[in-house]
Design a protein that fits this description.
Blueprint lengths: L7 E2 L5 E2 L5 H16 L3 H13 L1 H34 L8 H12 L1
Helix pairs in contact: 2-3, 3-4
């Protein structure tokens, strides 16, 4: 079995990340190769639109999918730290509460 998966702090305060065994690394690479080669729902949607309506309609669908990815990945850096801060924040509302809670709700959705 592999070693611990989270970063740890030694007695001197130096952060280190434990290594992964060769067997687990090969399993990890094989799994991600399979995931990368398997078409997802976005590819199936683009292929269905292309075969049914032609290239122009498929391009509109592809642009919509890409816009969704851009919006999601643009919101993600705002949501992850805010979810971590939710437990550490003081009770009550301030200027940062609305963006923090809304981005956290979006990431949870």
């Amino acid at each position: 079995m592999g070693k611990l998966s989270s970063a740890h702090t030694s007695q001197q305060g130096v952060h280190w990340i434990p290594s992964m065994s060769a067997d687990n690394f090969v399993l990890y690479l094989g799994t991600w190769a399979l995931v990368a080669l398997t078409p997802g729902p976005a590819v199936m949607c683009a292929m269905a639109y292309a075969t049914r309506f032609g290239f122009r309609q498929a391009l509109i669908g592809i642009l919509g999918i890409q816009l969704g990815h851009i919006v999601f990945f643009a919101c993600l850096p705002c949501a992850v730290p805010s979810r971590c801060e939710l437990r550490a924040s003081r009770p009550g509302w301030n200027a940062h509460s609305v963006p923090r809670w809304s981005s956290s709700a979006f990431a949870s959705f």
